[in-house]
Design a protein that fits this description.
- By secondary structure, the protein is of the alpha+beta class.
- It has one domain.
- The chain is 32% helix and 38% strand.
- The strands form 2 sheets. Strands 3, 4, 5, 6 and 7 form a 5-stranded antiparallel β-sheet that branches. A two-stranded antiparallel sheet has the order 1-2.
- Helix 3 packs antiparallel against helix 4.
């Protein structure tokens, strides 16, 4: 009986420790937020690289674009293919929006960047920060996964400038005519904390967008 009680106490203590290790707090949220910033900035870099036309600032070779789409982008997202993750884009001069798979979004960015000799495209993206809509550092508890991980969710804002350049229509200064779309997008971001306390950060869906 004493041994059973001892084992029960040890089990209870271990359960408490695991639960505590999987709980976001003022100490580990700083490390989580650094991961969020790194993932967001990497995403920004990938959009610029894939979506910018040759000859424009930030452009990369087409084989690099393909590598980013196929091998780099999926690792930024939580359940990239299973869900799948969704992007919101604008059209009709920014007056209408639509949803599309994130994989289709990046493929379209590449196609668009390489289309035509008369039009060039250039992207600029900047990570703005985490929205304050959760209990700890903007995060709130979402659920426990089937393998015992705790999933926390927050939202972040990324500002995007999209330059469309008409190479055949120089203005009075002799430069190409350029139109600009300035918008911000709100992305979900996940902190996945394993039973051993180790955590990873992943991007999720774009939830909404708005003009600046």
């Amino acid at each position: 009986m004493i041994m059973k009680k001892f084992v029960s106490v040890i089990f209870l203590l271990l359960s408490v420790n695991v639960s505590f290790a999987q709980t976001l707090n003022d100490t580990n949220i700083k490390a989580i937020n650094k991961q969020v910033e790194a993932k967001a900035k990497t995403f920004c870099k990938y959009v610029v690289s894939v979506g910018t036309s040759p000859g424009q600032k930030g452009a990369v070779a087409d084989d690099v674009k393909l590598d980013i789409i196929r091998n780099q982008v999926p690792g930024l997202f939580y359940e990239y293919s299973e869900a799948p993750r969704m992007m919101i884009t604008s059209y009709a001069n920014g007056n209408k929006t639509r949803k599309r798979k994130m994989s289709d979004y990046f493929s379209n960015l590449r196609k668009q960047s390489n289309s035509g000799l008369n039009t060039a495209r250039r992207y600029e993206l900047r990570y703005v920060g985490i929205s304050s809509n959760g209990d700890i550092g903007g995060f709130r508890y979402d659920r426990t996964t089937s393998d015992g991980c705790k999933l926390y969710v927050a939202t972040i804002v990324i500002r995007q400038l999209y330059h469309k350049i008409d190479l055949n229509s120089p203005n009075v200064d002799g430069r190409a005519v350029e139109t600009l779309e300035d918008e911000s997008k709100v992305y979900e971001v996940y902190a996945l904390v394993k039973p051993n306390g180790k955590a990873g950060v992943f991007l999720g869906d774009v939830k909404r967008m708005y003009k600046n």
